[in-house]
Predict the 3D structure of the following.
Amino acid sequence: MLEKVLNTTLTSVKRALVRTFGALALLWILTCGALFEVMRQPPETFARFMTRVPAPIAFVVLPFETLWTQARAGSLQVGDLAPDFSLMKLDKSSQIRFSAFAAQRRPVVLVFGSYT
């Protein structure tokens, strides 16, 4: 009789553990999916979202770097034309469009950084 009660209790505990693990796994997968979709949004939207996420959860519990690499990979391939964009001059007098250099048919080197 005692053995039957122990087996029933053990089976119940196993079932509860499997349900709990399954629920946690589903929650982790859904959270990873939500984070991946937010990472694909514009930087402002992503930043607003990340200000509300505790750092240990984002960087320790979730595969942040892998998701980021996949979400922000882009679709440019070697040999594709660079996308057009505009930047403000340092003296803020005007903007320069990248497409303006395309008409010159010369290579353009972009250096993003600071020399100060």
Summary: The first strand starts at residue 86 and ends at 88.
